[in-house]
Structure formats: structure tokens, C-alpha cells
Inverse folding.
């Protein structure tokens, strides 16, 4: 049983406060969706949890099973069982996905074994061309291919908690279904806990959320069950921005 606990998290960049007190708990087997308008701080939340350089934590805490993550290096957070699929995956010329995954598994103490075989099986499962396994990471990949690439990494690395930042962007309907199903299967077969950031309800048809959180101007302003995502699809975010009661 893993528990990612975000408490009163405040963070910013370049002197600007972006997250203004976020509380959220994700446990094994649960799917939490974070929805919200552009610029509400969704990607910032992912980056701060993963320890991307350039973000300043101004208050609050992030723990995984009680261990303070904010004091750890990004690789240590990954070793603790965190994984993130980025909205804009980085292109890494000269380094192939296969090498990255082999190194990453060694780093988390699970090297050896038939990594290649697992990668090929996963590629087939999500309709990702095997040729990409040996090509430079994310270079010249389409948006959809990058997202499949991230999903394959998730499936091979087997984290305890995964954060997906707009994994639906750039995916066509069929690819979206494959990716969402693959992640949903991890939650059922391996008890993966998921924090899925998305603009749109359609991801959540296959990856069924237990809780939907609405982020607006760096705060969670509403929480509900899956029906909240349906409601947002109909009404948009306007009502929530006003409910927040503060101007930028
Ligand atoms: P979302 O993912 O919800 O669209 P972001 O977390 O990307 O939102 O951004 C939240 C706000 O913080 C936006 O106003 C954005 O312009 C600002 N922001 C994010 N990253 C930076 C940065 N590196 N430098 C300056 N402002 C940033
Ligand atoms: Mg974003």
C-alpha cells in the first residue's frame, strides 16, 4: 500500500506563486483526476512533485509513505516508486528508450531480467512500433507516439504512484483508449495509484477516476466523483474560477 500525500503545497517559479495551498492524497489502486483551465498550475504540480529544477517550494509538504519527497533528488523520488509522464516529453538525441529503461531499472534496484522482452511485449500491447525502442528518445516522434512511449515506460518501470500530465494531448481516439486502458489495467492488476491531469473527460471513460479535483489558480476549488467530470464538460470552468474569489 502506497500513499502520496500532498499537504498545503505552495510553490512558484521566478518569484511568482503558482500553487497556493494544494491538498491531495493518492493511495494504491486509486485514480485521481485533476482538471482545470489552462494556467491553473496543473503542470507545475507535476513538476514540483517530481523535483524538476527551477521550481521553488514555498510551503507545505509532499510525502510518499511518510518519507519527505521534497528533500530528495528526482532520481531518488523515482527510486521511491514515483513516475511521471510529462505533458511535453523531452527529446534526448543519442539515447535510446531501451537504454534509458535498462538504466532506470538498475537505478531502482530491479536491473537484469528480460527487459527487452518486456519492452517488446508492452509495445505490442499499446500499438507502439518496436522500431522506436532503439531510436533516440522522443526525437522526431509525433505527439501520440511520445505519449505511447511514456506509457510503455510506465508499464515496464512499474512505479507505485504515477502522475500523468495530459497524457491525452495529441492522441487520437484509438490511441487514447489503448493508453487509458493500459494504465487502468495497472491500477487493477498491480494496484498502481494514479494522479491523472487532464483537460477533457474523454480520458476518464477508460481510466475511471475515484475522485475528480478541480484546480483553479493554484488551489483545489472543488472535489467530487466521476460525475464532476461530466458536469465540467457541460459547464466549463467559469463557475469555479469565480468561486475562488480572488483576482490575479
Ligand atoms: P497548466 O498546466 O494548468 O496549464 P502551468 O502549471 O503550466 O498550468 O502554469 C501555471 C502558471 O504558471 C501559468 O500562469 C504559467 O504561465 C506560469 N508558469 C509555469 N511555469 C513557468 C515558468 N517556468 N516561468 C514563469 N511562469 C511559469
Ligand atoms: Mg499543463
Amino acid at each position: 500500500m502506497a500513499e502520496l500525500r500532498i499537504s498545503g503545497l505552495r510553490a512558484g517559479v521566478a518569484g511568482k506563486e503558482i500553487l497556493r495551498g494544494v491538498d491531495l492524497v493518492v493511495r494504491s489502486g486509486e485514480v485521481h483526476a485533476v482538471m482545470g483551465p489552462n494556467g491553473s498550475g496543473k503542470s507545475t504540480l507535476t513538476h514540483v512533485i517530481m523535483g524538476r529544477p527551477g521550481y521553488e517550494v514555498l510551503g507545505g509538504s509532499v510525502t510518499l509513505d511518510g518519507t519527505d519527497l521534497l528533500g530528495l533528488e528526482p532520481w531518488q523520488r523515482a527510486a521511491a516508486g514515483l513516475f511521471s509522464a510529462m505533458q511535453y516529453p523531452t527529446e534526448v538525441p543519442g539515447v535510446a528508450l531501451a537504454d534509458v529503461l535498462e538504466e532506470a531499472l538498475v537505478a531502482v534496484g530491479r536491473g537484469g531480467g528480460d527487459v527487452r522482452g518486456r519492452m517488446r511485449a508492452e509495445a505490442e500491447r499499446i500499438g507502439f512500433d518496436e522500431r522506436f525502442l532503439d531510436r533516440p528518445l522522443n526525437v522526431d516522434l509525433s505527439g501520440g507516439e511520445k505519449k505511447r512511449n511514456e506509457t510503455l515506460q510506465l508499464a515496464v518501470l512499474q512505479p507505485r504512484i504515477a502522475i500523468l500530465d495530459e497524457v491525452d494531448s495529441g492522441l487520437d481516439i484509438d490511441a487514447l483508449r489503448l493508453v487509458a486502458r493500459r494504465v487502468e489495467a495497472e491500477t487493477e492488476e498491480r494496484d498502481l495509484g494514479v494522479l491523472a491531469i487532464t483537460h477533457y473527460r474523454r480520458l476518464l471513460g477508460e481510466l475511471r477516476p475515484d475522485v475528480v479535483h478541480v484546480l483553479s489558480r493554484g488551489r483545489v476549488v472543488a472535489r467530487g466523483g466521476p460525475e464532476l467530470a461530466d458536469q465540467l464538460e457541460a459547464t466549463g470552468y467559469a463557475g469555479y474560477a469565480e468561486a475562488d474569489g480572488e483576482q490575479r
Notes: The pocket of adenosine-5'-diphosphate (ligand 1) is lined by residues 13-14, 16, 18, 36, 38-44, 54 (CB under 6 Å). The chain has a mean pLDDT of 89. The chain has eight helices and twelve strands.
